[in-house]
Amino acid sequence: MKVGIKQELVVINKVEFGIYLADKEGAEEKVLLPRKQVPEGIKPGDKITVFLYKDSRDRLIATVNEPKMTLGEVAKCRVIETGKIGAFLDWGLEKDLLLPFKEMTAHVEAEDEILVALYTDKSGRLCATMKLYHYLGTGYECQKGDWVEGTVYEISDNFGAFVAIEDKYQGLIPKKEVGKNIKVGQHVRARVTAVKSDGKIDLSMNEVSHIQMSIDADRVMKRLQTEGGKLPFNDKASPEIIREEMDMSKNEFKKAVGNLLKAGKIEIKPDSIVLK
Fold this sequence. Notes:
Helices cover 14% and strands 38% of the residues. By secondary structure, it is mainly beta. It has 4 domains: 6-63, CATH 2.40.50.140; 74-133, CATH 2.40.50.140; 136-204, CATH 2.40.50.140; 209-275, Arc Repressor Mutant, subunit A. Strand 1 and strand 2 (18-22) form a beta hairpin. The longest helix is centred in the C-terminal third of the chain and has 18 residues, at 209-226.
């Protein structure tokens, strides 16, 4: 018998506080299904499908209730509260699920809906983790140019934003494509830019280049209008300033500015951009 999975067990005997189950007749290891969950009319020798976990006293216990996920699976759970060792999640069972601090990829608060996977710690207890990379599949069927939806589950300074496509499959928004406002837990709609030979998928939140350039040009125009017709920097500003001010890469900003310049809508000064 193993914690974290659903399995069919046999009823060994009935007691006042429930029924004892085992994987076979005569087995030494038994697990209790509490009386309030015992189906009416069940008797020794009958089989029943249950989920196994450990209670607050670290004892193996069975339940007929459905958890939101089993061992190795991923699901969204609500944060009930945070404590000294981590956060406690509602995962469909009476005992809340612990998300240790070391398994968080971002700060969480009560009532947050977060994407987690179920694993067992060194003591054999079930816990949650927000580090989903090894729990997500790579067999998502898509082609370059398709649009997909998913949840950002981790942001890496080296690689970019990791996305769980449909909360099941691996996706990555590369570092150069990540805007300053993207956050862990954010639902995103992104375009497939590459499907790797190993099944991993690269994503972009931008449209194809000619459409995105028009969208970015509109953003620059709106910013100019709200700033009274002048931006205190131009396309030669540092990538950091452009990202902070416009939430664009320097390349995206230069293309947008070039588009507006060609259309005769702006003038580029040594240290600024102004409307014509």
